[in-house]
Amino acid sequence: MNRILPFRLIALFIFFSFLSCSKDSDDPTETEVTVTTADFSKAMDENPASGQVIGIVSGSSNEGTVSFSIIEQSPAGAFSIDATTGELKVADEMLFNFETNPTITGTVKVGKDLLFEIADVTIALNDLEEDSVFQGDVWLHTQNEINEFGNTGYTHITGSLTIANNQYDDMVDLTPLLNLERIDDYVSIYDCTQLTTFNGLRNISFIGGGFGINSNPSLINIDDLQGLTSIGGGLYINDNFDLRNIDGFKSLESIGDILSIGGGVFTNLDGFESLKSIGGPLSIFFNLNLNNIDGLSKLENIGSRISISNNNSLTNLDGLSNLTATVSELEISFIPLLENVSGLQNIDVTEKLTISSNSHLKNIDGLSRISSLLNVNITRNTSLLNLDGIANLNDVSNDIKINDNESLSNLNGLNGLIRVNGLLQLTNNLLLRDFCGLSNFMTNGTLGSYEISTNLYNPTKQDIIDGNCSI
């Protein structure tokens, strides 16, 4: 018995030791988390576009995804990085200039939870040929001068550009100027009697001053300015009597001052389909074939004045129906086919209103926003039936003149008047027989002076107050 017991104890010890060792061997081995990355280096051309992709910083982990962030960069703000993909993009294109920053550097953190690695970023810029700049103003008066200047390869003029007839009058081709991209001051093209197109100006994208296109009698179209998106000053297209389209302005979004269009034979203004802002007045005059202004339908802002006159084929003003603006003056005159002004319903006028010599105009219902003016002149509109469109007008600092409107029969549209500080003149309205719209004003309002004659009925102020206001 004494020999058997120790043997059994030893066997039990070996058995439990085996179990213990077997349990330890089944436990999984804990894996160390790692993050890997690599430095990023690239050469690229200077002057890239904002948002241009530069490349991708590599990064990974053996346990899921990593994130990317910029620790520092020089110059600051030059590039951005996508936190998920590591994609680098141009953030400030102005800093990608070889002359100021030939190399752009940075440090990117590639991390997983609390672990991270660092990647250095180096972007070497390639020096490109810069603008060829002419300092000062340029005058070109002959075809030879145009050719010679074009051969210089200038892309940028710091002053103005004038192309005009001198004594030779042989300018027919602007294509030598194809290198031009920018003129910091004004551009003026006038009195070029043989010039038919502006082929050669298609690469101009910026004009800092005004742009004048005047008195070029052979100019047929302006269809080669598609790169032009803004004009710092005014745009003048006047007295080009054979001009048939202005489609070249389809990219133009803003004009810093006046838009003046007169003396062409084009039928529409569709070339201004992108125009949103005019900093000064809008003047459209003496365009005998113009039948609509729908090309101005995107216009949102305008400056001091609207004048539309002497457009014999124009039938409506609906092209301005999306324009909400306050202007100092509004003139609608000598438009014989115009029957209404409903396209002006979102326009207020603060100083001068002129509605004159529109022989088919029957009402002025598009003027309901007007409440206060300096002067009102509604004359020689032979088909005008009423003044109901200005029913909200209550205050006139100077004069109201309503004369020679042969079909006008009543003044009900003036029933909102409270004050006319100057002259209220009503003459030669051959069918005007009802003045009752002035009853409240004559009784309770403020009137400077009153002139009435050669209407169908000509009551005195007292007649109107006494109720003798119509026949």
Helix content range of the residues, please? under 10%
How would a crystallographer describe the biggest sheet?
Answer: 16 strands, parallel
Query: What is the end-to-end distance?
Result: 151 Å
Rg (CA only): 39 Å
Structural class: mainly beta
Mean pLDDT across all residues, rounded?
92
Strands, count: 32
Based on Cα principal axes, name the global outline.
elongated
Unreliably modeled segments:
1-25
- Tell me what portion of residues adopts beta-strand conformation: 25-35%
Total number of helical segments?
A: 4
Q: How does this model look, in words?
A:
There is one protein chain. With 471 residues, this protein is mostly beta strands. It is 9% helix and 31% strand. It contains four helices and 32 strands. The strands form five sheets. It has a 16-stranded parallel sheet that branches. Strands 10-12-14-16-18-20-22 form a seven-stranded parallel sheet, with no helix packed on it. It is elongated and about 110 Å long. The termini are far apart.
Q: Would you summarize the structure shown here?
A:
This protein is mainly beta and 471 residues long.
Helix and strand topology:
Layout: H1 4-26, E1 35-37, E2 40-45, E3 53-56, E4 59-61, E5 67-74, E6 79-81, E7 87-90, E8 103-112, E9 115-126, E10 133-134, E11 138-140, H2 143-151, E12 156-157, E13 161-164, E14 182-183, E15 187-190, E16 206-207, E17 211-214, E18 230-231, E19 235-238, E20 254-255, E21 259-262, E22 277-278, E23 282-285, E24 305-309, E25 325-333, E26 347-356, E27 372-373, E28 375-379, E29 395-396, E30 400-403, E31 419-427, H3 439-444, E32 446-453, H4 461-465
Parallel strand pairs: 2-9, 10-12, 11-13, 12-14, 13-15, 14-16, 15-17, 16-18, 17-19, 18-20, 19-21, 20-22, 21-23, 23-24, 24-25, 25-26, 26-28, 27-29, 28-30, 29-31, 30-31, 31-32
Antiparallel strand pairs: 1-4, 3-7, 5-8, 6-7, 8-9
